[in-house]
Amino acid sequence: MYREQLPVALAAVVFMAICAGAGADARAGKEITKDGVPHVMNPAAPSEGSTTLTPKEVWSVGGDDEEDVLLGVVTAIDVDAQGNVYALDMQLSQVHIFDKQGNLVRTIGREGEGPGEFRRANHMFLTPEGNVAVLQQMPGKLVLLTPDGKPAGDFPGPKGGDSGMIAYFEGGRAGDAIVLGTREFARQDASFNITRALLMLSPRGDIRATLFKTTAQRDMASMMNMDEKDMRTMVWAGGKDGRVYTSENFDGYQIKVHSPAGKLERVIEREYAHRQRSKQEMEDNKPRVIMRRNDQRVKPEIKSSTTDRDILRMFPREDGSLWVMSSRGGNDQPKGTMATFDVFDTAGHFVRTVAMQVPGDFDQDEFYIIRDQLVVVRSARSARDAFDGAEDETTTPAADVEPVSVVAYRFDTPTTAARK
Questions:
Q1: What is the CATH classification number for the domain harbouring 214?
Q2: Range of 16's domain?
């Protein structure tokens, strides 16, 4: 996807150098102030060059081994403080829990509408209390389970208004806060409003801050002709320290850093040239949307972007650094390199690029970097496409999809300078 293991001592030295730099004067990025908010304007190249890491595989489950764990469509991964890996299976409506050696500890959750049950869940994360939060998209709800599988109620998140309904598209944790990406639909005569929001919620469900919000009016005619850029959700990630990082613009390498209270602290920018897509990539990246008109399923016309989104993924690290995967860092990698990350220090300066050398296929696999673990879900995207195609009467499901497997790697973590 996206050769030998580094000696431990050398790996530690490399990581110590990733973000520390040689002092403030040597760091990339000029700091300016716009509308009272600090902006770090980074050049195209990092100040400390590049490095390559080769994480060590520690276990693997699923795949072609018929006696192994059966996996359907894995759509989310999280890791607890003991190193146990939690894998959400959207197809089976279950969460598989594996220990540090890859042994299946237990499977929790099931399909349904009752306590501890959910349908077509696409996100999952661990709450500050240690419960497992499973996000059901429509109707939006956040189902809580204890690690041993007992129902723990539903998180009291936002509800839809009297004239509409709400969907939960994304969810995660930032410190003691819960972050939800929502879409609320409200009827307005012959049209309806779609309100997209990213909310920071307290552990009790109160809105601590609205990090992003926009409303668009739609009717049936406009819904039949859409633009990919308007449909894509923003890229965001929550850090252990409570900060939330958001990339709102499809065509822009810009990251907003929000404090644990939801205040905009700074904006990180970097010089970046958009990555051009091939015609096949434009077709492959079209969002899949199915609508009903006159009791028949129809596909709207969707305009696909000629370029990729500049920022694809973000991973806040426990040391305060931020690892960012750009469109080139994900797509244009040599064989054997899963992805290359832009690394920003705690003040937002572009200090290093880090290439992760593990086998994979960027078009088919998905990956997660959590604490000292890199977890790769092989065939995640192809399995999801096949699952969606099987439920879509207008699409022929893909054939010969490789069975899903989960592979866990470990690597040493870096150290960065103190936050300014």
A1: 2.120.10.30
A2: 8-410
Which secondary-structure segment (H or E) carries 110?
strand 110-111
CA 280 to chain centre: 24
- Whether residue 2 lies inside any domain: the answer is no
Q: Tell me, yes or no, whether 391 lies in a domain.
A: yes
d(CA 365, CA 174): 25
Structure token pair of residue 96: 């598989």
Nearest to 312 by CA among 346, 271, 340, 289: 340
Beta-carbon-side half-sphere exposure of residue 151 (alpha carbons within 13 Å): 13
101 CB-contact burial (10 Å; exposed 0-12 / middle 13-18 / buried 19+):
exposed
Residues with Cβ < 8 Å from 91, sequence gap 6 or more? 72, 73, 383, 387
Residue 415 lies in a domain: no
Of 24 and 351, more confident = 351
Q: What's the domain count of the chain?
A: 1
> What tens digit of pLDDT does each residue of 72-97 get?
999 999 999 999 999 999 999 999 99
Q: Could you report the per-residue pLDDT of 383-419, keeping only the tens digit for each? A: 888 887 665 554 544 556 789 999 999 998 655 443 4
Residue 87 counted as domain residue: yes
Return the pLDDT at 301. 84
Give, for 389, the enclosing helix (H) or strand (E): helix 380-391
**pTM score of the predicted model:** 0.88
